[in-house]
Backbone:
């Protein structure tokens, strides 16, 4: 039950090619990460929608292989 | 939406209570750091809420994720509307958006 940060970044970038993604490993166990995702695709979307878009990009791993992902999303300044 | 039996229970809870927190454990004994964080925020804001322990039933634990199309627990509902999980509630609390939302929805918060 774990993922490596490279895979998380790859999946997010696949769904959001323009995204700026920074991933932080919170616990070193492959299960608890923080991710900061900046993309044009979030424009006009509520926070919940933005996070749901990222969870969709992770193709069902969220809550399964990946136990915790502290998410911060936004649009380019 | 699939006719998951847990949906009836969820719909009832969110309809009958202004603020509902589906969490792991109970408000007095949260069994997950993220659930505990949201309980602390709600207590700090001083709003009355119903805590629902999803660990009591696998059906409820999976059902609430389907119901809101949100993959993790905890999940906060205000006046029947899904507001967010731990990250969003903490961010909204820090920016004051949570307090504004509660006021707009006519939920009295002591703070």
Residues:
């Amino acid at each position: 039950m774990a993922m490596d940060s490279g895979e998380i970044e790859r999946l997010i970038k696949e769904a959001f090619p323009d995204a700026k993604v920074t991933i932080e490993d919170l616990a070193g166990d492959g299960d608890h990460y923080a991710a900061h995702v900046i993309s044009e695709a979030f424009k006009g979307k509520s926070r919940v929608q933005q996070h749901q878009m990222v969870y969709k990009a992770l193709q069902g791993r969220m809550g399964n292989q990946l136990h915790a992902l502290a998410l911060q999303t936004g649009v380019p300044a | 939406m699939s006719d998951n039996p847990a949906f009836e229970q969820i719909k009832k809870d969110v309809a009958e209570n202004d603020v509902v927190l589906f969490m792991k454990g109970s408000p007095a004994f949260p069994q997950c750091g993220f659930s505990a964080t949201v309980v602390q925020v709600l207590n700090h804001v001083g709003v009355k809420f119903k805590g629902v322990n999803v660990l009591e039933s696998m059906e409820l634990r999976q059902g609430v994720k389907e119901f809101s199309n949100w993959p993790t627990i905890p999940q906060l509902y205000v006046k029947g509307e899904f507001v967010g999980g731990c990250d969003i509630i903490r961010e909204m609390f820090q920016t004051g958006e949570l307090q504004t939302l509660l006021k707009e929805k006519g939920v009295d918060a002591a703070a």
About this structure: Chain A has two helices and three strands. Helices of chain A lie at 5-15, 47-57.
